[in-house]
């Protein structure tokens, strides 16, 4: 049976109706990589990330065959893109009970296929269990596909290595203009659009992490199986993008994809935007870059310096096609941003550094270097040297929560941070795949991580920054848990490695004492207030006494409260302040007031949406959070 397509004349309007009202707010008028970045922000917010083991049962909601050999009443038979024969009966079929680890032939069972191979992201969460591109497929074909990319196979019989029962195949790559010459897996035409839209979703969902993934594996380009090119915006090699766009166009969105997108949204709370709005594919990747390098940024300066960080700012490039800036520390690339400021952290106290900035455009042409800024970090400061775990809740059943706090004095990019847990195995211990954090955590802000089964009286899943059933959030009180920077640097620790910690960590809520504002790689219970099982107070909230205020060295200005509901009060010598501006973190001015404190000592922010902002007073910036 041919898959069901909606009539073209009503196609886009019906697709639009699939997403909940307001889900794609903020995308109007955007195109190119600006649209892609906005979609990333949307599909990454407040997902529920399940455990890899949970997916098997969820496939009964997302991947039943109700479109080919079975009708709407089917409640058991899975749809497998690798073996489905659209024109007739399938050679074999599976229920979720037929899951196996490996197979020697087709038809023996199924297992979970990462459409973007898990070697790309080292099998780390949340990528490891993302339902939008982890699908059920025949185990044997999955094995043989290995980590080969999807692609166009040669038609030369001598270079086709496997042909499967539904005529999909593994053969030598014939993708036009791509330097890779190794093996590819080519799905049948019926599912090429499904594959393309899943990979493009991956590129959107994990923007900000793509450059840290396993691409260009120190092998020759002709042998590199990974089509990622190391860029965060474009994501894939241009030749591979061209193929994905071709597949997307030739195999339009089906009713099966629409239904699956809705089913995954009910489970995971995010969507594939290219199923909802197919035209966004060409709106993002259909642009034609020019051949002119952009103008560089101007007036790079250090606006704030601490013992462990320096905040840089600059005036934007005048070129209209600039999509971002790369920051170089002593000549080495250390960061990138779409805005015109960034905090470079993990510096050493009393140390001299030089920084330069380059602009780059949508064709990945780079400007000349900016002016060089020389910075010497302070010998010490009042800020935390890094993030730290501020609360640990180990309650009954799935009542598991961690709170991470930023008191570093600057925004922190979470993409290089991960949670690790140590599990017992016979007489030894091991670390399962870590859970990677993501996004920006502002100064004086907390991020709460919850298990999706948590049912705390003081805090809901909708309030949490991260919700995951990854192993790191299944602790039972005997495991060592740590916050890591990059792959192996311990930032902060809960418990002691290599031992059962139940005497200290089981059935308790630990709250970091207010006198402690630094992480510690070695756990000390004396740094914590110990409460009983399921104790839950002020989770995700910093009290006023906990906040390290930004201060003006000349005028000793302080903001309070923070977070704020309606009014930001400014304490100190405000009579000299001539201009107050409220900015978002891209540097866009939202509000301007001259002589703001002539008759008052506050700024109204009542009309601002919830989020993080900067109050700029005569050139000095102070971060605050609007509740």
Determine the strand fraction and express it as a percent band. Answer: 25-35%
Helix count equals 10
The neighbouring-strand order within the major sheet is 1-22-21-15-14-25-26
Indicate the mean pLDDT: 92
* Count of DSSP strands: 33
Description of the molecule:
By secondary structure, the protein is of the alpha+beta class. It folds into four domains: 8-44 and 53-285, no CATH class; 298-376, Immunoglobulin-like (Sandwich); 388-544, Immunoglobulin-like, CATH 2.60.40.1260; 549-626, Immunoglobulin-like (Sandwich), CATH 2.60.40.3080. The strands form nine sheets. A seven-stranded mixed sheet has the order 1-22-21-15-14-25-26, with no helix packed on it. Strands 17, 18, 19, 23 and 24 form a five-stranded antiparallel sheet that branches. The protein has a four-stranded antiparallel sheet with strand order 10-9-12-13, with no helix packed on it. β14 and β15 form a beta hairpin. The termini are far apart. Mean pLDDT is 92; it is low at 1-17 and 544-554.
Summarize the structure.
This protein is an alpha+beta fold and about 625 residues long.
State the main characteristics.
about 625 residues, alpha+beta, seven-stranded mixed beta sheet, single chain, Immunoglobulin-like, disordered N terminus, five-stranded antiparallel beta sheet
Chart the SSEs and their pairings.
Blueprint: H1 11-16, H2 32-44, E1 48-49, H3 55-62, E2 110-114, E3 134-138, H4 139-145, E4 160-163, E5 169-172, E6 183-186, H5 192-205, H6 238-250, H7 255-268, H8 273-276, H9 280-285, E7 298-305, E8 310-315, E9 322-329, E10 332-337, E11 341-344, E12 352-361, E13 373-376, E14 388-394, E15 400-406, E16 412-413, E17 417-425, E18 428-430, E19 435-436, E20 440-441, E21 445-450, E22 466-468, E23 480-485, E24 489-494, H10 502-505, E25 509-512, E26 528-531, E27 558-560, E28 567-571, E29 579-583, E30 589-594, E31 602-604, E32 611-617, E33 620-626
Parallel strand pairs: 1-22, 21-22
Antiparallel strand pairs: 2-3, 4-5, 5-6, 7-8, 8-11, 9-10, 9-12, 12-13, 14-15, 14-25, 15-21, 16-20, 17-18, 17-19, 17-23, 23-24, 25-26, 27-28, 28-31, 29-30, 29-32, 32-33
Helix pairs in contact: 5-6
């Amino acid at each position: 049976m041919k898959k069901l397509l909606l009539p073209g004349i009503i196609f886009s309007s019906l697709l639009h109706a699939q997403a909940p009202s307001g889900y794609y707010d903020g995308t109007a008028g955007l195109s190119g990589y600006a649209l892609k970045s906005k979609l990333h922000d949307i599909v990454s917010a407040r997902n529920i990330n399940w455990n890899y083991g949970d997916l098997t049962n969820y496939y009964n909601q997302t991947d039943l065959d109700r479109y080919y050999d079975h009708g709407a009443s089917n409640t058991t038979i899975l749809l497998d893109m690798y073996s489905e024969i659209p024109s007739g009966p399938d050679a074999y079929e599976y229920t979720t009970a037929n899951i196996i680890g490996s197979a020697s032939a087709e038809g023996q069972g199924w297992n979970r296929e990462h459409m973007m191979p898990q070697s790309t992201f080292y099998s780390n969460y949340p990528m490891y269990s993302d339902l939008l591109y982890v699908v059920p497929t025949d185990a044997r074909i999955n094995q043989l596909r290995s980590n080969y990319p999807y692609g166009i196979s040669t038609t030369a019989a001598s270079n086709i290595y496997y042909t499967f029962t539904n005529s999909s195949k593994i053969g030598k790559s014939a993708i036009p203009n791509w330097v890779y010459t190794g093996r590819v897996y080519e799905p049948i035409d019926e599912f090429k659009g499904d594959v393309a839209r899943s990979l493009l979703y991956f590129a959107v969902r994990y923007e900000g992490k793509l450059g840290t993934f396993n691409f260009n594996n120190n092998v020759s380009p002709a042998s590199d199986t990974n089509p990622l090119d190391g860029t965060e915006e474009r994501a894939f090699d241009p030749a591979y993008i061209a193929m994905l766009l071709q597949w997307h166009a030739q195999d339009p969105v089906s009713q099966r994809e629409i239904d699956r997108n809705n089913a995954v949204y009910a489970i995971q709370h995010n969507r594939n935007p290219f199923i909802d709005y197919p035209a966004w594919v060409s709106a993002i990747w259909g642009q034609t870059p020019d051949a002119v390098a952009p103008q560089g940024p101007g007036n790079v300066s250090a606006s704030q310096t601490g013992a462990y960080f320096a905040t840089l700012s600059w005036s934007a490039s005048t070129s209209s096609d600039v999509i971002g800036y790369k920051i170089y520390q002593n000549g080495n690339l250390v960061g990138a941003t779409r805005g015109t400021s960034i905090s470079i952290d993990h510096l050493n106290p009393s140390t001299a550094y030089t920084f330069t900035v380059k602009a780059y455009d949508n064709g990945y042409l780079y400007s000349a270097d900016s002016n060089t800024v020389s910075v010497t970090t302070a010998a010490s400061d009042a800020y935390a040297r890094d993030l730290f775990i501020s609360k640990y809740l180990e309650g009954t059943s799935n009542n598991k929560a961690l709170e991470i706090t930023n008191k570093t004095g600057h925004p922190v990019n979470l993409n290089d941070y991960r949670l690790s847990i140590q599990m017992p195995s016979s007489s030894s211990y091991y670390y399962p795949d870590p859970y990677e954090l993501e996004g920006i955590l502002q100064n004086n802000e907390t991020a709460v991580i919850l298990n999706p089964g948590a049912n705390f009286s003081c805090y809901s899943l909708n309030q949490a920054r991260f919700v995951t059933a990854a192993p790191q959030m299944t602790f039972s009180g005997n495991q060592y848990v740590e916050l890591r920077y990059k792959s192996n640097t311990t930032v902060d620790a809960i418990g002691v490695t290599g031992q059962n910690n139940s005497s200290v960590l089981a059935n308790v809520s630990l709250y970091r004492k207010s006198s402690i504002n630094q992480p510690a790689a070695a756990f000390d219970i004396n740094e914590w207030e110990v409460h009983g099982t399921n104790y839950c107070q002020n989770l995700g909230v910093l009290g006023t006494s906990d906040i390290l205020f930004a201060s003006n060295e000349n005028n000793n200005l302080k903001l309070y409260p923070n977070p704020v509901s309606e009014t930001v009060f400014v304490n100190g010598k405000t009579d000299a302040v001539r201009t107050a501006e409220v900015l978002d973190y891209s540097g866009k001015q939202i509000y301007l007031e001259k002589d703001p404190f002539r008759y008052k000592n506050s700024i109204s922010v009542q009309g601002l949406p919830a989020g993080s902002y900067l109050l700029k007073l005569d050139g000095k910036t102070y971060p605050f959070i609007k509740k």
